[in-house]
Amino acid sequence: MLYYLFEYLDKHFNMAGAGAFKYISTRAALAIILSLTITMIFGRRLIEALRRLQVAETVRTLGLDGEQKKQGTPTMGGLIILAAILIPSLLFARVDNVYIALMLVSTVWLGLVGFLDDYIKVFKKNKEGLAGRFKILGQVGLGVIVGSVLYFNENVKTKDIYHANDVTEQLIIEQHLQPQLIDNQQVWVKEEKATTTTIPFFKSTEFDYANLLKFIGHGYKDYNYIIYILMVIFIITAVSNGANITDGIDGLAAGTSAIIGTTLGIFAYVSGNLVFSGYLDIMYIPHLGEMVIFAGAFVGACVGFLWYNAYPAQVFMGDTGSLALGGIIASFAIMVRKELLIPILCGIFLVENLSVILQVYYFKYQKRKYGIEYAREHRLFKMSPLHHHYQKNGYHEAKIVSRFWIIGIMLAIVTILTLKIR
Fold first, then answer.
1. Does residue 182 register a pLDDT over 70?
2. How many domains does the structure of the chain reveal?
3. Is residue 112 a part of any domain in this protein?
4. CA 159 to CA 181: how far, in whole Å?
5. DSSP character at residue 42
6. 245 lies in a domain?
7. Predicted TM-score (pTM) above 0.85
8. CA-to-CA distance for 140 and 144, rounded, in angstroms?
9. Is the dihedral of CA 119, 120, 124, 129 positive or negative?
């Protein structure tokens, strides 16, 4: 909103400094500062309010060290994160941008689903919370919204950039290339509305989801939207559940999400910049640069939340925060066309998810083959998700979190390196 105000002041009154709001870097920096301020200053007030309302976490008895000390810790702290994301984004980003609007919807949508789950647990005293099928329904609903907008909205397009030395007259005609001047150099640009995504580690190689329907035969592209929306649903559901499972010990989900958000912000900046995308030879996505402001607010919110959530936690984010964080990350990755990098970038979420799946299926296999007692004594992990396995092995949760963060940083660096290693 402030973007439009300062644009007006600069245009009509030539106000000193107002022109700085045109720059993404300025607004992203302000978004980070404001989100940190909201979490650190107003976060304390929200925690005190949650205590007064007795919005406390009911800690299950899992036989873990220090678990009883957490009894009574306020939950639903994800409200702090949501406020610290939404307010700076609304103030500093261009809300008429389709990507920003979609990210705001994603934040609120899964934030509400998580809030309902926490509300049922805390106020209705139902430890199970929102039924799993309704959580899935919420995730599927968001997937349908995100996938439909990205597929049908006319403002969502990609551009492939070809340098003058790399094009021939035949290529110009076949690909319908248009000339464009960048830094006093002529390049050729192909603008299209496509369901393509970047294949990591391979230069100038993209994957179109429509290819999955080639077996249908002639006219398969007419059904492209079906496979695309289904893929978006799958990614959002998987990543949001991964973030939800990862939120099991103090600071793990928030810190990991901050690392992932920083990486996605870098991708949004280079993919939304004609010069950088041309230099790196990656897909250029018009209007995507605004997502850097949202990424700044997201990272600031996660880091600021650690002020109270780092060990020993004064507040838990609950499903209000964890489901929203996962949904935001998934939607963001899809919009920057880097969803195939999710297994690397979100490796922590993936491993946590897999540890639960493997634990369940391995237990069922052992039970069927050797009986219930044998299965209980020979579990694949001492406990799942994976972070609890390490707790059972005697590691302090602060050390587990720190080491998971280090692994997350390494995965983020590998992800960023895919911009050059191709």
1. no
2. 1
3. yes
4. 14
5. I
6. yes
7. yes
8. 6
9. negative
